[in-house]
Design goal:
heterodimer; A: 134 residues; alpha+beta; five-stranded antiparallel beta sheet; 3 helices; 5 strands; B: 111 residues; alpha/beta; 4 helices; globular
Chain lengths: 134, 111
């Protein structure tokens, strides 16, 4: 399991990629196509927190990641301490749109993407099965 | 992300990117394209050979760059995109407007 706790500022994306590299090192059986899809989806969920999340004091929220290669799947959990519910992705925007693709991409790439907000923060759960994205 | 601009005559330029084209770096590519269009270099190839990872912010910037060059009567093309970039172009159905050319030479041909 790889864990990361960081302020959700743009620099945390670099640390997210390093945590993923460490995860792939401890799970060499995860195919390249699955790594690529999971990394792309996770980056969108984390970027969503960086762009939209605010902690109660107004700065970037605290971001926590837990990444794990379990039997047959890669599972990620992303949480923040933002008091407001994060926006969720809709349909894939048209080709002229300059934004709004992030969570639509994550949804399309993963087998499961769950989002919940309990008043204390947001919690995202990402699941990609190893048979996906071959 | 590292970014290098190479002029090819009065109206064509190549922007070479290396690293990750994401939330952190996308605005730099936007500024580079804007600067080129203002100089009259409205036909731009973005060479993605060195880009291992792109996110939705990077894609949005490429769409913005395409619109900006076309408004000025030009064009923006992508060259040498790797597997991850091609995957997201397909997923977002952007490959129709941002067709990835296999090589820089292919992208420059007829531009």
């Amino acid at each position: 399991v790889q864990r990361l706790e960081a302020r959700a500022d743009p620099d945390c994306l670099e640390r997210m990629h390093l945590a993923l590299d460490a995860l792939w090192e401890e799970a060499p059986h995860v195919p390249g196509g699955v790594r690529l899809r999971f990394a792309t989806a996770l980056a969108e969920v984390v970027a969503n927190v960086v762009e939209h999340g605010r902690c109660p004091e107004g700065g970037p929220p605290l971001l926590r990641l837990a990444l794990e290669a379990v039997d047959g799947a890669v599972v990620g959990e992303v949480t923040d301490d933002a008091p407001l519910r994060a926006p969720e992705g809709g349909a894939m925007p048209g080709e002229d749109a300059e934004g709004g693709r992030g969570l639509a991409m994550a949804n399309a790439l993963l087998d499961e993407l769950e989002h919940a907000h309990d008043g204390q923060g947001n919690r995202w759960r990402l699941v990609l099965r190893l048979g996906s994205g071959a | 992300m590292e970014l290098a601009v190479e002029h090819r005559g009065a109206s064509v330029a190549v922007v070479r990117c290396t690293g990750r084209l994401d939330l952190v770096s996308a605005s730099r590519l936007r500024s580079a394209v804007e600067e080129l269009v203002e100089e009259g270099r409205t036909r731009v190839v973005v060479d993605l050979e060195g880009i291992g990872f792109i996110d939705s912010s990077g894609l949005g910037m490429l769409v913005a760059g395409l619109k900006r060059t076309r408004q000025a009567g030009g064009e923006l093309r992508l060259a040498a995109a790797g597997e991850q970039v091609r995957t997201v172009l397909t997923l977002t159905r952007l490959e129709r407007v941002l067709r990835p050319y296999d090589t820089l030479d292919d992208a420059l041909k007829g531009l």
